[in-house]
Design brief:
There is one protein chain. The chain has about 140 residues and is of the alpha+beta class. The protein has two helices and ten strands; from the N terminus they run αβββββββαβββ. A hairpin with a 5-residue loop joins β9 and β10. About 10% of the residues have low confidence.
Length: about 140
């Protein structure tokens, strides 16, 4: 009987720990380098030429490709919260491409980013809004 009670308590605690660890806050400076955008607001990007982001955290700069157009912007970090990050409005080229939906969604999501969470492994990062909702899933290049 004691074993049954132990397992009834242990299993939910273990599952909760695994789920919370996979979306734990992490240092925004770990974004340094090149990342592919593989998901926007829960929608996987399955097209060729994935959007990409290249963070230069030493200079608080971000540049990349939204899927069609090249963009440049800056990021702002919060010295009181290592996981907080704000992406400033980007300057972008204005080429027209056959499918602008993905790029529009990426640029809109970038404007709502307020923090960073760890992904499922060291090659994945989650950019989240102020409520912790995942906006962009990044995969290390």
């Amino acid at each position: 009987m004691k074993k049954i009670i132990f397992y009834l308590l242990f299993i939910p605690a273990f599952v909760g720990m695994v789920v919370s660890c996979s979306e734990a806050k992490t240092d925004a400076k770990k974004l340094e380098g090149k990342w592919k955008v593989v998901e926007v607001k829960g929608k996987k990007i399955l097209e060729e030429g994935l959007p990409q982001m290249d963070f230069n955290m030493a200079e608080n700069k971000l540049h990349g490709n939204g899927g069609c157009n090249i963009f440049n912007t800056t990021v702002e970090l919060d010295p009181n919260d290592i996981s907080a990050i704000t992406i400033r409005p980007a300057a972008a080229t204005m080429m027209a491409c056959p499918n602008m939906e993905t790029e529009d969604a990426v640029f809109k999501a970038m404007g709502d980013v307020k923090g960073v969470k760890a992904g499922q492994n060291e090659n994945e990062m989650l950019l989240v809004d102020s409520d912790g909702n995942v906006l962009l899933v990044l995969s290390k290049e």
